[in-house]
Amino acid sequence: MQALTGLLVVSVEQAVAAPLCTARLAEAGARVIKIERPEGDFARGYDTAAKGDSAYFVWANQNKESVVLDYKQPADNALLHTLIAKADVFVQNLSPGTLQRAGFGSADLRARHPRLITCDISGYGETSAATDMKAYDFLVQAESGLVSVSGGPTELGRIGVSVCDIGAGLSAHAGILEALLYRSVSSVGTGVKVSLFDVAADWMTVPFLQSEYGQGAPARQGLQHCSIAPYGAYQTADKALTILSIQNEREWQRLCETVLFLPELVNDPRFYSNTQRVQNRADMDQKLNAVFITLTASELRMRLLDASIAFGALNDVAGLARHKALRLRHTMTSTGQQVALPALPVQFTHMTNPKVHAVPGLGDATDRVWAEFEAQK
């Protein structure tokens, strides 16, 4: 058995944040009915990389039933109300107020169905002055300051995956699980609200505190850590980049003695602590680079391994696909073709791990769900 077997989730969802949240619920055994407009979730058209399906859509929509409804039409509106009446969880990420105006406001739904858990995912929340702003991942990265601390010293950089969408979806998933635990002891459903901006702002806490109370927000460092040194990418004689990380003074000593063969650096006042190393990063890097440029990446990594120093190769996506730690799972696209994708990050020992189901075609379950829930009225 899976943890959420027997639970019904109804989701009016689009893009990435809400679909990823409900995908995780489906993977835990919940039945997820995905409500789509007649034209479908626009994430279906982001690309065609997954053998004709969108890579985003394949990732975030496995194990679901797609039902096409136009809730502005009386019959479809009534069916959606019937679905929600039977549901344990209702999730939505349309623009704030959209479903409220259609009669599906979360507070009203919980008043009508006291055990219902509702989850509203928005860009900037529902009460701020920014409510009317369109909120997509890159925009929130920019508005929250994430972009300002990403990239190289002379160039801003978008974080390369949709981190605000992903973070909001996973935060919503965690909130729903907490709400289910609360309901198990209180028999009362609750509302869960998550915004992309709140998630990004939470992740910006360290730069925020440094800016408000310290010496200012960290400058962009490219492939170096802004507040730990050495922690970054170093080039060897074969032009390969290796990222190494020193987290404490024991590791610094081992790096100096076992990797660099420069034991005198251990007690050099410029490098005696992490604070000094950050302040004197250029001098420190000059010492490191003078040694590393005489080694191949293989030789450097062997020394780091022998010294028990954390390191990693700077891989590209093709390197990820060949990585010895990569686990894969397989799913079927909406047209029945098999694709491989990275395995789920959580594995269980005493619960059934998720089964693989296909990505739904638009409206695949519409007739079946109509028949099932009309019969239950």
Automatic annotation (TrEMBL):
<dbReference type="Pfam" id="PF02515">
    <property type="entry name" value="CoA_transf_3"/>
</dbReference>
<keyword id="KW-0808">Transferase</keyword>
<dbReference type="GO" id="GO:0016740">
    <property type="term" value="F:transferase activity"/>
</dbReference>
<protein>
    <submittedName>
        <fullName>CaiB/BaiF CoA transferase family protein</fullName>
    </submittedName>
</protein>
<dbReference type="InterPro" id="IPR050483">
    <property type="entry name" value="CoA-transferase_III_domain"/>
</dbReference>
<dbReference type="InterPro" id="IPR023606">
    <property type="entry name" value="CoA-Trfase_III_dom_1_sf"/>
</dbReference>
<dbReference type="InterPro" id="IPR003673">
    <property type="entry name" value="CoA-Trfase_fam_III"/>
</dbReference>
<dbReference type="InterPro" id="IPR044855">
    <property type="entry name" value="CoA-Trfase_III_dom3_sf"/>
</dbReference>
